[in-house]
Design goal:
Layout (H helix, E strand, L loop, with lengths): L1 H24 L5 E5 L7 E3 L6 E4 L8 E4 L15 E4 L5 E6 L8 E9 L11 E6 L2 E7 L5 E9 L5 E10 L3 E2 L1 E6 L11 E10 L17 E3 L5 E4 L5 E2 L9 H4 L1 E4 L7 E6 L7 E7 L13 E5 L2 E7 L5 E9 L4 E8 L8 E2 L1 E8 L5 E2 L1 H14 L20 E4 L5 E8 L6 E2 L13 E3 L4 E5 L12 E3 L4 E3 L4 H8 L4 E3 L32 H24 L11 E3 L1 H7 L6 E4 L3 E8 L2 E8 L7 H11 L10 E7 L2 E7 L6 H6 L8 H21 L4 E2 L8 E3 L5 E3 L6 E2 L8 E2 L11 H6 L1 E2 L1 H17 L4 E2 L2 E2 H10 L17 H14 L10 H20 L4 E2 L2 E2 L7
Parallel strand pairs: 1-3, 14-15, 17-23, 27-29, 29-31, 30-32, 31-33, 32-34, 33-35, 36-40
Antiparallel strand pairs: 1-13, 2-3, 4-5, 5-12, 6-11, 7-10, 7-13, 8-9, 8-11, 10-14, 14-26, 16-18, 18-25, 19-24, 20-23, 20-26, 21-22, 21-24, 28-29, 37-38, 38-39, 39-41, 40-41, 42-45, 43-44, 46-47, 48-49, 50-51
Length: 861
């Protein structure tokens, strides 16, 4: 009997393990699979893939369901591509995805389009595809009538909005929309998002996707007649260098060539020579090699040696990764080494292009609240996509504040005459920044909740024309009596006054509760409406300038006409940038620089406001001083102290400008470092500049350096915080690679950028020149052991080699790829002071008069 019990126990365990394995293979918990155009309420399991698809009705309210023509429907076509949803109404139509795993995860998002002449026009449209407010791609059927667009995206919000935008070249449509949760270690590349260009499964004619690939990547076959296919029946496992979890079925096939002297080629054309490609090459040895056989080869890209010699591992995946740009076409070539007896082998390739997305969206709490309100009330409004972003597509009835540089906030909600019924939704309490709420003329019932009195910024509340149960909350009436809230309410059912707690309905000029009687209702309503409109306009203007209104009196606010006078009608341009144009001006006897925001500026109002706010709160001799600002409608500008010698880059890279001596470079580096030291360690909470570069280091008439351009700066939320999670911003060449990969902004991100500036001071080379990154160039020279060859040739050898070595060592420490191994700005300042002292000692040891010549060293202290 015991033997039988053991047998059944083992059998049950075996079944459980089998079911667990089946469940693991079929796990779609991180998937959203939408069949666009399918009948609402229906769902199905795709027989080919086992994927569970649902209708798009629960993800978007607009659009018309369509079917492709039967002539385009074949047995090979995926079922979800036979239907589609078209959008003839509205310029922008958005699907809203809210994966359970939320923000901070890496997702693969795939939008699929099959035209199939559904509209009988025989003319496929062309339209834009957006992720929220960020342009993803342009859907173009010039190459094929069926297109997939796929992006790997690290989200900063719980909400993902996929939007189709009409650009006047036909009606947008979509066939299927798919989201797949990826492992966090996969594709941890240099940029936040990667748009798929090519994913190729070599050596086969079969396409591989789910369930073989548990992330449902589609590996399209490429079976070339000029190569030889290899295949193994054995399992190919993932090697230690492979984070991308390529399925065994993909790796079990490969291509090779028969002629040992030939090259194995893989080539493609770039859509734009400036496109940055990210390439993943997957290799595995899938042949059983004999004892005297070896496979070893070198890899070349456009004729330049890239990798090798390479020997693929036996039935184990290896990954080779690289990024590159600046070519209209690419050829990957592989050939065997002299010692190899076998030709090269290639199993699979993925190519992606970089997408730097800002991910500017509505605050997640506000978005969750308004979506819940939408679900509760189903208002008669066209609400879809992000509630506040982009500003041109803000939901009808909403006003938003764009003061916070990362997230928009809802400050006004008008649901008047929207057919609402039931009680006031509890989720309104989560709109913590709301200032005006209009719920008038609906069928709302129940008690007026007292949480409305807890909304700190609420100043207008219109509840007129509903059927609420009396009495009103005492807290709400108290706020009204104190003049903190303009409250409007009446009862439709019997036109009786709302019953108030004792003493709360006393006649008082300060009582803002409006309970109109029938005879005067119209007059009072008109007056209240006018007052509300005026208050909202005034309040909105105050909100847009909330940070600016607290500027000290010495930081003046100028009108546009005053700015025109200061700049002599914008007569003299002294600079240009992403913000706009910088003009020379004068206020009395003092020269100033006036930076005016361009209407086409990529930075915009948020950066303008952030910079003014920061400059009015921080003061340091190595930070540019704020003189004033202009904020008059679309005319916005910042007025600074004038810096007579322009920016550092002008003197380093423009050889027509004055050549900076070695000592001047040390002093300028120290000045800029002291500014960052103050921001990191002298401000509470600390501030990260986020765009440290030569053009943002300005020089006054004495060549004293001052840090400028704080539009991208971020303060930590609390003094003890170690990082800020934010979208990537900055300038290529100066950007911290760790920040680019993780979205974790730290003080060490500034240290990295400053290290690049130090390298520019040392070498006289730009961060990126002739497609070469300065750090790579410096490292190549260092390996040759010649520090002298790194120093700027414009100095003509007039520098101390010891201080040059000290400064170079410091710069290389700052640009360490691991942020924890970089010095703090405190340490950087100490090291630069030591360099400057050593430089002074060196010059003090040299006689001023040698052979009748005089050496002049300017004193910049």
């Amino acid at each position: 009997m015991t033997i039988f019990r053991s047998f059944y126990s083992c059998l049950i365990l075996q079944v459980a393990l089998t079911l667990a394995m089946v469940y693991a293979q079929d796990d779609q918990s991180g998937f959203i699979s939408i069949d666009c155009g399918m009948t609402p309420g229906l769902n199905y399991t795709d027989k080919r893939t086992g994927l569970n698809y649902v209708s798009d009705a629960g993800f978007i309210d607009s659009g018309v369901s369509q079917k492709i023509l039967p002539a385009y429907n074949s047995a090979e076509l995926d079922l979800q591509l036979t239907t589609l949803t078209s959008f003839s109404q509205g310029t922008r139509n958005c699907y809203t995805l809210r994966p359970e795993q939320g923000k901070g995860n890496r997702y693969m998002i795939r939008a699929r389009f099959t035209y199939g002449n559904y509209d009988l026009k025989g003319q496929p449209p062309r339209f834009d595809l957006y992720l929220g407010s960020d342009h993803w791609d342009t859907v173009d059927f010039s190459m094929s009538l069926a297109m997939d667009y796929e992006i790997i995206h690290l989200t900063s919000s719980d909400y993902i909005y996929v939007c189709l935008v009409n650009i006047g070249l036909g009606i947008p449509f979509i066939s299927a929309l798919e989201l797949r949760l990826l492992d966090s270690t996969m594709y941890a590349g240099q940029l936040q998002s990667l748009a798929l260009s090519v994913r190729t499964n070599l050596g086969t004619s079969e396409t591989v996707r789910f369930e073989d690939d548990k992330y449902d990547r589609i590996w399209y076959a490429l079976d070339s007649s000029k190569t030889t296919n290899l295949v193994t029946s054995g399992t190919v496992s993932s090697g230690p260098s492979t984070k991308e979890k390529v399925p065994s079925r993909v790796m079990s096939t490969a291509i090779t060539i028969d002629n040992l002297t030939d090259y194995l080629y893989y080539s493609w054309e770039a859509t734009d020579a400036n496109t940055t490609y990210y390439m993943y090459i997957y290799l595995a040895e899938i042949e059983i090699l004999k004892r005297n056989e070896t496979r070893q080869f070198n890899i070349y890209l456009n004729g330049d040696h890239w990798e090798g010699p390479v020997s693929p591992l036996d039935h184990m995946t290896s990954t080779l990764y690289s990024s590159f740009f600046n070519s209209s076409s690419y050829t990957l070539a592989m050939n065997k080494t002299k010692n190899s007896t076998l030709p090269p082998i290639l199993n699979a390739i993925e190519l992606y292009t970089a997408r730097q997305l800002l991910q500017w969206q509505t605050d997640d709490k506000d978005a969750a609240a308004i979506w819940s309100i939408r679900s509760t009330y189903r208002p008669k409004k066209s609400w879809q996509g992000d509630p506040c972003v982009p500003q041109a597509s803000t939901w009808v009835g909403l006003n938003c504040s764009y003061n916070d540089r990362m997230n928009a906030r809802i400050i006004s909600l008008n649901l008047s005459s929207s057919g609402l019924d039931g009680e006031i939704a509890a989720n309104l309490a989560n709109l913590t920044m709301i200032q005006s709420l209009d719920l008038s003329y609906n069928n709302l019932t129940g008690v007026v909740p007292k949480f409305l009195a807890s909304l700190d910024f609420l100043r207008i509340l219109n509840l007129t024309g509903n059927n609420f149960t009396k009495p009103l909350p005492a807290e709400l009436l108290a706020k009204s009596n104190e003049g903190l809230l303009l409250l409007s309410i009446e009862e439709i059912s019997n036109q009786e006054k709302v019953s108030c707690p004792t003493g709360s309905c006393k006649k008082s000029k300060s009582n803002k509760v409006v309970i109109p009687v029938i005879a005067t209702a119209t007059i009072i309503f008109v007056i209240l409406t006018a007052l509300s409109i005026l208050w909202i306009i005034k309040r909105r203007k105050k909100v847009m300038n909330a940070d600016l209104d607290s500027i000290e009196t010495r930081n003046r606010r100028f009108t546009f006409s005053e700015v025109r006078s200061i700049t002599n009608s914008f007569n003299t341009v002294i600079g240009n940038g992403g913000f706009g144009t910088v003009f020379h001006g004068s206020i009395g006897d003092n020269q100033v620089a006036v930076k005016m925001l361009s209407e086409s500026s990529a930075q915009g109002y948020r950066e303008f406001q952030a910079e003014v706010h920061l400059l009015m709160n921080i003061h340091h001799r190595n930070i540019t001083s704020l003189v004033g600002y202009c904020d008059e409608g679309s005319r916005k500008g910042i007025i600074y102290e004038y810096m007579a010698n322009g920016n550092l880059g002008m003197h380093l890279f423009d050889r027509t400008s004055e050549i900076l001596s070695w000592r001047m470079r040390l002093q300028i580096g120290l000045d800029a470092a002291q500014a960052l030291e103050y921001m990191h360690h002298g401000c509470r909470p600390p501030i990260v500049h986020r765009d440290v570069k030569c053009s943002n280091i300005l020089l006054n008439e004495n060549f004293q350096a001052k840090l400028a351009d704080f539009g991208l700066s971020r303060a930590f939320a609390t003094e003890g915080a170690t990082h800020v999670s934010t979208g990537i911003a900055g300038t290529p060449g100066y950007l911290d690679p760790e920040y680019s990969t993780t979205n974790r902004l730290t003080e060490k991100s500034d240290v990295y950028s400053f290290g690049v500036v130090l390298l520019e001071l040392i070498t006289g080379r730009m961060a990126i020149s002739e497609q070469t990154f300065i750090l790579n160039w410096v490292n190549s020279i260092v390996r040759e052991g010649s520090v002298e060859n790194i120093i700027d040739t414009a100095l003509q050898g007039e520098f101390d080699i010891d201080t040059a070595g000290m400064m170079l060592t410091l710069a290389r420490a700052c640009v360490n790829s691991v942020s924890t191994q970089r010095p703090t700005m405190n340490n950087v300042v100490i090291d630069l002071k030591n360099c400057l002292e050593a430089e002074e000692d060196f010059h003090n040891a040299i006689p001023d008069n040698i052979d009748g010549s005089i050496s002049l060293v300017p004193d910049l202290r």
